[in-house]
Known about the structure:
Number of strands: 3
Radius of gyration: 19 Å
Mean pLDDT: 83
Helix content: over 70%
Number of helices: 9
Distance between the termini: 33 Å
Amino acid sequence: xxxxxxxxxxxxxxxxxxxxxxxxxxxxxxxxxxxxxxxxxxxxxxxxxxxxxxxxxxxxxxxxxxxxxxxxxxxxxxxxxxxxxxxxxxxxxxxxxxxxxxxxxxxxxxxxxxxxxxxxxxxxxxxxxxxxxxxxxxxxxxxxxxxxxxxxxxxxxxxxxxxxxxxxxxxxxxxxxxxxxxxxxxxxxxxxxxxxxxxxxxxxxxxxxxxxxxxxxxxxxxxxxxxxxxxxxxxxxxxxxxxxxxxxxxxxxxxxxxxxxxxxxx
Length: 266
C-alpha cells in the first residue's frame, strides 16, 4: 500500500509540475529555479520510495522492463537535480517531469513480478554501470532536444522569446558534450564489465543487447571524435547524439520488450 501510494503521489507531483512549469514556459514567464528544484527534490524522494517498493523484495531485485525504466528516470532526476546546483540544467525538468510521470505510471500498471534476480557483486557492478551510463546519456539526449529547440527558435522569430528563457546556446552545447563524455566512459566500462563478468555476451538472449550497445558506443565515439577533430556542432551533433541514444534504448529496452512481452505472449 505504501509503495502504491508513493508512486501515485509521484505521478501527481510530476504531472502537476509539468503542467505548471510548462505553462509558464509557453507563456514566456520566468521560471524560478529554486521553486522548480524544490518540487523536483520532493518528487525525487517520493519517487525513490516507490521505486524501492517495486524493485526490492525478499526474493531479489526486480529488473523488469518498466521497473528499470522508472529506476533510470529516478537516477536521471537525481543527477540533474544535484548538477543544477552548479550548472544551468534545471530547465531539463520541463522534459523530465512528464517523462518521469509516464515511467512511474508504467511501473505500477505493467510490472512483471516474475522477473526477480539475486545478483552477485560482479553482475551488480555491471548493472549499476549500465544504469549510470543510460542515465547520463539520457540527460545528454534531453540536452540535445533542447538544443534542437533553440536552433529551431533562432530560425523562427516568433519563438525567440521562449528560447531566451534558456541558457545561451554555447553553454547548452558545452554541457551536452560534457554529459556525452562521461556517459561514453561509463558505457565503455559497462560493456567491458559485461564481457568480463558474463559468460557469453553474444548468447541468444544477449546478442541483440550487445550488438546495439556496441553500435551506440561507436556512434558516440565518432561524435566525440568529430567534435574535437572536425568541429562538429549544431544540427549534426544533435542528430548523432539522438542516433546513439536510439541505439542504446534498442539495446536495453528492445531486448527486454522481446523477452518479457513478445515471447511471453507466444
